[in-house]
Amino acid sequence: MPKSAQENKKRRSLLDIRAVAARAKVSIATVSRTINRVPTVNAKMAKRVWDAINELGYIPDIQARALGSGRSGMIGLVVSEITNPFFPELIQGFEDAAIENGYEILISSTNYDPKRMELCIRRLLQRKAEGVAILTFGIEQPLFEKLADRNIPLVFVDAGPDRPDVSVLKIDYAHGIRQGVQHLAALGHRKIGFISGPLTLHSAQSRLAAFLNAVDECGIHAEPEWQVEGDHTFEGGIRCMERLLDASMRPTAVMCSNDVTALGVLHKAYRVGLRVPDDLSVIGFDNIQMAKVMIPPLTSIRMSPIDIANAAVKALKEHIEADHPRREYKVDTCLVVRESTAFPPGAMDDLKPSQRSDPKPLPSIAKG
Amino acid sequence: MPKSAQENKKRRSLLDIRAVAARAKVSIATVSRTINRVPTVNAKMAKRVWDAINELGYIPDIQARALGSGRSGMIGLVVSEITNPFFPELIQGFEDAAIENGYEILISSTNYDPKRMELCIRRLLQRKAEGVAILTFGIEQPLFEKLADRNIPLVFVDAGPDRPDVSVLKIDYAHGIRQGVQHLAALGHRKIGFISGPLTLHSAQSRLAAFLNAVDECGIHAEPEWQVEGDHTFEGGIRCMERLLDASMRPTAVMCSNDVTALGVLHKAYRVGLRVPDDLSVIGFDNIQMAKVMIPPLTSIRMSPIDIANAAVKALKEHIEADHPRREYKVDTCLVVRESTAFPPGAMDDLKPSQRSDPKPLPSIAKG
DNA sequence: CTGTTAGCGCCTTCAA
DNA sequence: TTGAAGGCGCTAACAG
After folding, report:
1. Residue of chain B whose Cα is closest to the Cα of A130
2. Which range marks the domain in which residue B21 is found?
3. CB contact under 8 A, B72 and A87
4. Which end of chain B, N or C, is less surrounded by CB atoms within 10 Å?
5. What pTM did the predictor assign?
């Protein structure tokens, strides 16, 4: 409740559109038109209005505007977890793109909690978001049908309900993953492990499928024992690496379904005294900022959060403003080579030790 | 512009409070009261209203409510940069605390860009935020005077303008930093470097002062050559470490004004073949999630983003709702020992090599 | 305890 | 091109 119930009495703000109109000696309609840049306003009057606005320090109340015009000017962004390092960059990109396109944003994180997500949808609906991007990578998507029922423009990643107001960001996982596998193959690796994400996730399945496909293309045997299911967490990465270490024959390289998992792998390797990349090569996925800060800097497959954010905003904008919006938007991925990948152990046994001691970083396909 | 200018004609939403009133056979006032849980509504009628609401799937328009009540129910959060790893946790905590207290949040990042910040303030004002937390750690604060002029409740970190509507989160840097210095001293370090943040920042100055003070308390000489000014970035950490390496006498330990800087230090050490902690001990500040993921896991001083977020929301809430809000809120810091700190080199020269080879992690003061 | 009514600040027809 | 007037969906006096 407000400080004192009293002061809500004479509520009319001293600084509303009327004050400006009075100062500029025009009607409120003219002020409104000026602010909204309706072209038919006389230049002289417009100037008077702008002057009044500046002198008074007037700032229009956007809520009232929304009520009057029926447009909120806001789009929503739903992510699963802000503290997952992939998302801050996504959010930043989304915010930039939204502002660029004249929209305000509403951010919500579901934290994998269905109750929280209910609330979060409710809030977006209450605020009359004109469109919502649901970039949770497959988590809890079914529940979003509720949103779809309101016929508001929606963007999903990978896959979404088949409705006219819904568009989908198709991420080309295969391209980057193929590059990664080829990179490892070129270095001489033949025993390549893969730590997937939770296979309930569409995105995780796609990545695994892309890996199997790429490995097959390179004529490499995909030993089932080397494919383990992780959960996209650091701790999960550690656990999966433990399983890989227990394998009857250990892989010499491991690809991970995301970078956070790869960090877990690096960690476990450090714990058991395996040197990366000398003893084991590691490739991550996402290319989060942390990747280049790791020791050693992590070779990773970039899925640009900026690209995703831009595509999402573009999709929303087209749905809101255009007559025939596209239903699909492509987003590419590509390999970024850093220092967590090298020749498999044993490959350089015929070289003099001095030559082994300082492994030069490999040339980057994309700059880190 | 909307898809077709036409369909805005007969705009009255089919699902407004009137529809509910009609279905429940009551007046719109009763519906309003029911929704707002005014206690004086007859239970029978309330039930009729709720039933109608559920059957219709009615969701109140919060903008209209804001307009009518004069309250937006939103508080703002301004940070300098979402992609700085300290902030996601802060944002998450702030969102949680805000929702907990019945507020919606508006997030903005300034990206150190004054123009962007202007916009960001404008947006908060337009949206009629009832209070704003400016958690940028001293960056660009002067510009926020504009906000203060509107007499809306504000929260700053460390220091802020001296006005009745402004409160300040006083962070006790000294406590954690003293623990860190004592920890190093106990291990036997006498040559301790310090990489500060940009000294234009109040928070950076406080940390440096706390360090000098703590070092003095421990009777350790603070060689000026070992205090270098960084900029809280990874690259800055690398540069500062280079300068420390060039010192006529190298420190055996280095404390950093934030974790990201410490990552740069670890990186530079890795590049030049210095092992951490065997050859050099490193302590960070902030205790970001990345700290425990680093190789080796980073000893750091925790400044809990959750504590800060909670204090900020609490301060705002008190300002908005209470009559005599507090003007200051304390936030504590404390040392978290991990594996980037150990005895200084040479301290164990009298031990057998076998005993040196496997340095056990030190017990944690706080769990990581 | 309920219903009626007059705004909240702005937008947007309509007539001038 | 401008001004007057009637909403937008909801809240909050006030009267009943």
Report:
1. B2
2. 10-69
3. no
4. N
5. 0.87
